[in-house]
Amino acid sequence: MTREPLRFCLVGGGRAGRVHAKSLTGHVPGASVVAVVDAHAETRQRVASDFGIPHSFAELDDALNQGGFEAVVITTPTFTHAPLAIAAAKAGKHVFLEKPMALTLGECDAIIAACTAAKVRLQIGFMRRFQPEFRAAFERITGGEIGTPMIIKSLTHGPGLPPAWAWDFRRSNGMLAEVNSHDFDCVRWLMGADPASAYAEISNFKGAARGVTELGFYDTALVQLRFANGGLGSISGVCPCDYGYDARVEIVGEKGIMQIGDMQGQAIVVVTDREAGRVSPVYRTWPERFAWGYINELREFADCIRTGRQPGASGEDGRWALAGVLAATASFTQGRTVALSEVLTTA
Ligand SMILES: NC(=O)c1ccc[n+]([C@@H]2O[C@H](COP(=O)([O-])OP(=O)(O)OC[C@H]3O[C@@H](n4cnc5c(N)ncnc54)[C@H](O)[C@@H]3O)[C@@H](O)[C@H]2O)c1
Questions:
Q1: CA of 240 to the centre of ligand 1 (A)
Q2: Does ligand 1 come within 6 angstroms of the Cβ of 125?
Q3: Full-model pTM
Q4: For residue 86, which of 52, 118, 133, 43 has the smallest C-alpha distance?
Q5: Which pLDDT score, from 0 to 100, does residue 285 have?
Q6: Less crowded by CB within 10 Å, the N or C end of the chain?
Q7: Please, where in the chain does CATH 3.40.50.720 lie?
Q8: Which range among 23-27, 129-133, 165-169, 289-293 shows the weakest confidence by mean pLDDT?
């Protein structure tokens, strides 16, 4: 792998921004962060000082005018993604954009079009695709070990409330977008097929007691999906769940069952033989659930920029995850199963 220097501008220095700043400055060979943009003065100064970033700006346009970097990593709130990503692409910068890709499918299309026109790479922050046990599971499924996937159940339960902007449905698309975008991407990736319909129910147990009064807020969701190949899926979302960060997937295939992750650490458990009950566990320990996913996704991004390859978590993938969120949202709002074609045609 070539290690030619790559200079990044970090846009947004909050929770996700700090994770990516750490990866880029410590774990991506040849990468450096030369500028940080954050609307909040104290935040941008702290990130610049903590990670040794020489330049800081209040607005992306100022950073783009100064230049001196090849790529941006955008980790601002969801409602700001589209204008920032499009501005960066128009300035010829490669774009790493956090999930959820945007608020609407129209915004996703505009981001993809801007990146395509500028011939820059676009990668969405679906780090599970680069987390070792998720990657290994994907390869073992596509290698045929458990046969064709019939049912995929994915859950993400987050410990605490996200930042306040995400409580407002109009700025985040709700918890299914903020917390469960990863599940929507993951079930589609592992199923190897696009979702065809969604049915969802939501509930709100803890919001009021935590001071969340935003209209439309929910902290609990269950989604049922049907895929174009006949496969079935479910997504469970709870935030805040309080007990920890819990992300697990179960895949029932024609020949066996596979589990990704457990509550205590990281593991893949595969059972392939009903008679012998053969189980092959692969355990890994790491204090933070997706630490390697966050590092590897930026290594992937750097490699794609250097080689011209298309990233493994594309704008199309981001668009499909959002389409799933929008169909599930229409479902619980209208109390019926919603076909994906309904939300795709109103983009
Ligand atoms: N991949 C993951 O696992 C993961 C984890 C957490 C968050 N995220 C995503 O990352 C994004 C940011 O979430 P967060 O939790 O870090 O939010 P945050 O509120 O902690 O940080 C956002 C930062 O962006 C700054 N900001 C807001 N508007 C701006 C603008 N126009 N220009 C420059 N800076 C601006 C804010 O001042 C703030 O410091 C969201 O899309 C979220 O869904 C992804």
A1: 18
A2: yes
A3: 0.93
A4: 118
A5: 28
A6: N
A7: 6-127+294-312
A8: 289-293
Mutate to test the pocket of ligand 1, among 56, 80, 98, 101 (most ligand atoms within 8 A of CB): 98
Residue 171 corresponds to which tokens in the numbers above?
């700025």
Compute CA distances 291 → 74, 133, 148, 155, 256, whole Å. Answer: 18, 12, 29, 18, 29
Q: Is the pLDDT of residue 281 over 50?
A: no
Query: Which CATH class for the 129-289+321-345 domain?
Result: alpha beta
Residue nearest to atom 4 of ligand 1 (CA): 16
In ligand 1, the atom with minimum distance to the C-alpha of 163 is 19
Which residue from 10, 36, 38, 40 has its CB within 8 A of the most atoms of ligand 1, so it is best to mutate?
38
Q: Is any ligand 1 atom within 6 A of the Cβ of residue 297?
A: no
CA distance 167 to 262: 28
- Whole-number Cα distances in Å, 171 to 69, 163, 217, 297: 29, 11, 12, 25
Which CATH code for domain 6-127+294-312? 3.40.50.720
Q: Under a CB-based contact definition with an 8 Å cutoff, are residues 221 and 139 in contact?
A: no
Residue 176 CA to residue 343 CA, distance in Å, equals 16
